[in-house]
Design goal:
The protein is α+β, with helices and mostly antiparallel strands and about 80 residues long. The protein has a single domain, classed as Ribosomal Protein S8, Chain: A, domain 1. The chain has 4 helices and 3 strands. Helix 1 packs across helix 3. The longest helix is centred in the N-terminal third of the chain and has 19 residues. The radius of gyration is 12 Å and the shape is globular. The N and C termini lie far apart (about 25 Å).
């Protein structure tokens, strides 16, 4: 499994799935929290790239509601609607 896949799986396991279990309809993901949670060092572009990819939307069965912050920044934030 490559790093992008590991990042996507982490977000699915730690954000998306728990939100579904709590019957939430949307979830907010912040790049710095994912980066920190995975114990990464200087891999913010990888985190942002993995979550910006259309393949993540299909993989996690979510729809992008909004994306804010710089393209490859710790402050990049996504709001996803759970399908």
């Amino acid at each position: 499994m490559n790093q992008a896949d590991l990042i996507r799986k982490y977000v699915l396991d730690h954000y998306i799935t728990p939100a579904r279990q709590q019957n939430q309809t949307t979830i907010k993901v912040v790049a710095s929290q994912v980066h920190s949670g995975l114990g990464l060092h200087a891999r913010m572009p990888a985190v942002c790239g993995a979550l910006d990819a259309d393949s993540f939307l299909d993989y996690a069965r979510v729809t992008l509601v909004s994306r804010s912050g710089p393209k490859q920044s710790s402050t990049a934030t996504w709001v996803f609607m759970l399908r």
